[in-house]
Amino acid sequence: MNVQDLAQTFGALADPTRVAIVATLAHGDATVKELTEPFDLTQQAVSRHLKVLEEAGLVSRRVAAQARPATLEVDRLIEVLAWIDEQRRGWLDRHSRLEEHLRRLTKDER
């Protein structure tokens, strides 16, 4: 995942309403009307949030009869989680090296 896509994804997830929409879509596809129900928002506002999520690759929409249900794009979330895990491993490695260095310094002082 390139840096631009990563920043766009994190930007899209920086809004609590969009996070809640992603959480709802994790349970299955939903229309704008269905996504509007738990929020005190208009359908237009929810549509704008969906557009941001679509642009970030987190959601896709399709035509099904007269509805346009939104679908969570799990692959994008998996890519983000892989990036986070890579960062976490890097920090754990640095922490381990620092811990070992401090242990050697303490041992040398004895």
Helix content: 55-70%
| Morphology call | elongated
Strand content: 5-15%
| Radius of gyration, whole Å | 21 Å
In whole angstroms, the N-to-C terminal distance is: 48 Å
Summed over residues and divided by their number, the pLDDT gives a mean of: 94
Which structural class should the secondary elements be placed in?
mainly alpha
The low-pLDDT segments are none
Query: Order of helices and strands, N to C?
Result: HHHHEEH
* Largest sheet data: 2 strands, antiparallel
Protein name: Metalloregulator ArsR/SmtB family transcription factor
Pfam family, one: HTH_20
Domain HTH arsR-type: 1-92
Characterise this structure.
- This protein is mainly α.
- The protein is 67% helix and 5% strand.
- The protein has 5 helices and 2 strands.
List the helices and strands and how they pair.
Blueprint: H1 3-12, H2 16-25, H3 32-36, H4 43-55, E1 59-61, E2 70-72, H5 74-109
Antiparallel strand pairs: 1-2
In short:
The protein is mainly alpha-helical and about 110 residues long.
Q: Could you name the key traits of this structure?
A:
110 residues; elongated; two-stranded antiparallel ribbon
